[in-house]
Amino acid sequence: MQFTSLAFAVFLPLVFMMYWAAPQKARMPLLLLISYGFYLTLSPGYVVLLILVSLLTYLVGKHCNQKTLAFGIIIQIVILAFFKYAGLLPGMFQNIVIPVGISFYMFKSISYMVDVYQKKAEAEEKALPVFLYLAFFPDLVSGPINRAKDLIPQLKADKTFDESQAVYGMRLILWGLFQKLLIADTLAVYVNRVFDMSEAFLGISYMIAMFFYTIEIYCDFAGYSNMAIGIARLFGITSMENFRSPYLSVNIQDFWNRWHISLSTWLKDYVYIALGGSRKGKVKTYLNLLITFLVSGIWHGGNLTFLVWGLLHGIYQVIYRLYKKCCKVRMPKILGLMITFLAVSCAWVFFRADSVMQALRMFRYMFYDMDLMLAYRKLEMVKKDLFMLIAAIAVLFGFDIANRKVDVLRQMDRLAIPVRYAIYLIFSIVILAYHIHNGITQEFIYFSF
Amino acid sequence: MDRFLFRLFLFVFLLGITVIPINVMIDPYNVFHADEIRDNGVEPNKNYIKTKYVIEHQDEYDSYLFGSSRAGFIDVSKLPDGSWYNLSYSEGVPAEQVDTLKALIVNGEIPKQVYLSLDNISYLVSPQYHERQLYRKAFPFTGSLNEKIGFFTSYLDTITTLESLSVIRNYEGNTEDLQRRMYSTGCEDLNADIVFDEENKEAYWATYYSPRVDEAIAEIQEFCDICTAHDIKLTVFTNPMYVTTYEKSINNEYLYFLERLSEVTDYYNFSGYNRISMDDSYYFETSHFTPKAADIIMDIMQNGGNEDEIVIQGFGAYVTKDNVADFINTLKFQAYTTGALIYEGE
Questions:
Q1: What is the pLDDT of residues B74-116, one digit of tens each?
Q2: What CATH superfamily classification does B46-123+175-338 receive?
Q3: Do the chains contact at B1 and A428, CB–CB below 8 Å?
Q4: Can you tell me the ipTM of this complex?
Q5: A442: which DSSP letter?
Q6: B interface mutation test: which of A428, A435, A438, A442 has the most B CBs within 10 A?
Q7: Where are chain A's structural domains?
Q8: Which residue of A145, A365, A416, B133 shows the fewest CB atoms closer than 10 Å?
């Protein structure tokens, strides 16, 4: 049951009403049941694994010392590695199905255990908050990877219904649907056409696919995150921000402060800093950066393309640090933005490609044929799709630019009610019309991680 | 909370009344008007409409003709020994025909006899391609509630509905005639006054055609197995394809399809180079044969025909596992002689 499915549109209002109608004491167990029910629709065979990981997390937190922590972390990494990489080996594990959300709830589990050990978070006396922390359905499948010290107190707290929070949550959901259904799913049609049969294309088609994928993955993942955060708000929970206008970054360091924030901060806190961070000299710092981004690549999967993607970002970070150190001339922001956008786009080609060879081939022939009209015909682009995409992407970037200064969704409170409803209605009609018209239901990209 | 819920439901209501009525009222594919189909210039989803009709009128029919729109001009009212309905529709393919047969059976309608018409479309078109074509989208008669809701939701396609207005507004249809045919025999307009365009003899071919012989044969096998399991008298035949369409098909695995077909069922063949397929007067265009040609093929299947010359050409040959090799050789020989196939030795 994905967030964009009809079944979820029926599920969410029902569980929302059940939650707020329930007495305070019953809300946590109810939310846990709802979360397991939600997970059952996605990965029915692996609910038991989620429960066992939750139990392990709780017990390690309750009896936390160096040995139990090491045990807990190693077990988690072994299980995660098994599911993510066993399929690459020939033999009986080739058809192994990765449990939905495993990368995300395992990382939450590790962060809880480490935070308890480092006394950054309190070990929970009762199991329920820990179980709910890991299974909380809005962020269970693809994040954000909320920290225990932020989420558990909210889950435990007595709450009264806050209409302004709920309205803000609905706006986030609508914005997420706009990003996912209108932009990401439409772009995916053309991106898939090129990547699935890349040898049938050349030149500018590759360039178009690269930039389309750059926008697609942003809208897909940020769209999902916004929906997850919005859904959490409906239950009175403030989830951490996951994307903050990343394509307006002026350098690669800035980019990683804005892209998949919950993962990048997790990697910084539990990998980069654990390795020593920037405290052990320049060379060690650069090595730690490379290792951290390699881990990020590996986290996405066993395919070599993810490793190359991670390594590229590590190299970008090192180059940027060297540039900052050596070059006294400040780069104009617009140039920094363009270089960052281009560097990130190039790395996405490896992320999306089936193989490193495919990605390299695309770069090799990217400037071979620059006939835009031919590319338009080969991609079988539809005029109304093109106009809609141009308009939607303009709205997307306009929103991102404005959102850097003010919280645009919060500012909507200042508009008159009829104007607000007109905006909601227009967005909803356009999203619905294009979603049904294209008949496309693309699975969320980060579902498979 | 109550205020929030009220505003939310009000919003959903406003959204609903903006989207639903316009799509249901205009309904270019007649899915919401299946019981009162209108001739509006847009090809209706006949797969859904016809199947729904016969399920709801089981007592009126006991025998069915399955096929693509090419079989639409076969006058089933002339077929003996049963009360016939023509279930053909645009680009009907075996996988969908299996689903339709299953839908009939699950709804208590076990046919007494069935004719299954096949041609190049049967193995060149993937059923998945139809899932995105609103006039060919199959209704999941034996599917889940979710699938059924999904089917109707896809017709709330406001963009397509509004685009269809340019056709609907300028079209003068004959709703009475369409309803009479759909709700009696299911046949196309047998009195259609369409003259073959001598300037356009190119093969009827779509860009998405792609041979999938093995998958199609498996689907036909399933159809045959269902008929056997329910004691349904099954007659399979290949349509008389117009000669240029036939020539293009034999260069795209059509003879392989015919050979494989004999492994799952005996069948009557009407394709090839013969007096019918090479005579424009038996065709509306390079895809659809006329009721005159349909009468001939039905006569042969019912009575064995009485023109030896046609049988010698392969037209009306009854193909089995035992004679398929000779039959294919006959068709190959014809093709080598005309140059449609290049002889490459054995």
A1: 999 998 889 999 999 999 999 999 999 999 999 999 999 999 9
A2: SGNH hydrolase (3.40.50.1110)
A3: no
A4: 0.82
A5: P
A6: A428
A7: 6-160, 165-250+331-448
A8: A416
